Amino acid sequence: MSVTLFENQHKKKEKKEEDCYNNGGKGGEIDIESESESENDDVFIPPTNFSMVEEGLYRSGFPEFNNFSFLQTLNLNSIIYLCTEPYPEEHCKFLELHNIRLFQFGIEGTKVNSYLYADIVALIVESVPEEVVSKALRILMDVRSYPILIHCKRGKHRTGCVVGCLRKLQNWCLSSVLEEYQRFAGTKARISDMNFIEAYDILRIRQSLYSVIYQYHGYASNKRRLLDIGESSPQSRIKSN
């Protein structure tokens, strides 16, 4: 994308210089400041930790205002938001403007807290609720939700857990699932997250999907997902805290 952007900017600059030369310089000098502003309008900045999971499915950290132009290029239909905090007003306006549905599944996050009691260090592991992940996966299994973006705050832990469980549902081997999680989490990778992904029971979500009449559809010709025909289209603004 950056190469194409550079070529477009270079062509614009050459066009302006050519027009100025053809007009015998009557057009005056090129307005460097306005040209710079025009070029900045063409710059698309992805959210932190952004990546494509598969065609039509993306993951990232929390999008900022300067990421909105980039998000428009994805033609999103839905966003899965995994934090407990309310979605900012300016973000909600952006979603409404571009007809993007918001599904919020509030997860406190996976933290390991320690405390000292009687000279013994005890660990409290706050894990991701399994039922919340299953609800998020149901949205990911519905072709009507696509294209879709999954994000939390940093795009590492909560997002990594949901994507990891999706990979298990896609029959990835566990070593590949955990390698992908660690690649995005980096030095912040958490054992509790990886234990959760390993222990997540994909048979439970499969049975849930098979409990209704369904048919196979695909977002693209080479992609197949489950579309529940016994249910209405999923409603946006879902909250599961």
Descriptive notes:
Helix 5 (130-140) crosses helix 6 (158-169), helix 6 (158-169) runs antiparallel to helix 7 and helix 6 packs parallel to helix 8 (191-199). The chain has helices at 2-22, 32-41, 68-72, 89-97, 130-140, 158-169, 174-185, 191-199, 202-210; strands spanning 51-54, 57-60, 78-81, 101-104, 111-117, 120-126, 148-151, 214-217, 225-228, 238-239. Strands 1-2-7-3-4-10 form a six-stranded mixed sheet, sandwiched between helices. It is built from nine helices and ten strands. It is 41% helix and 18% strand. The chain is globular.
Could you give a quick summary of the protein structure above?
By secondary structure, this protein is α/β, with parallel strands linked by helices.
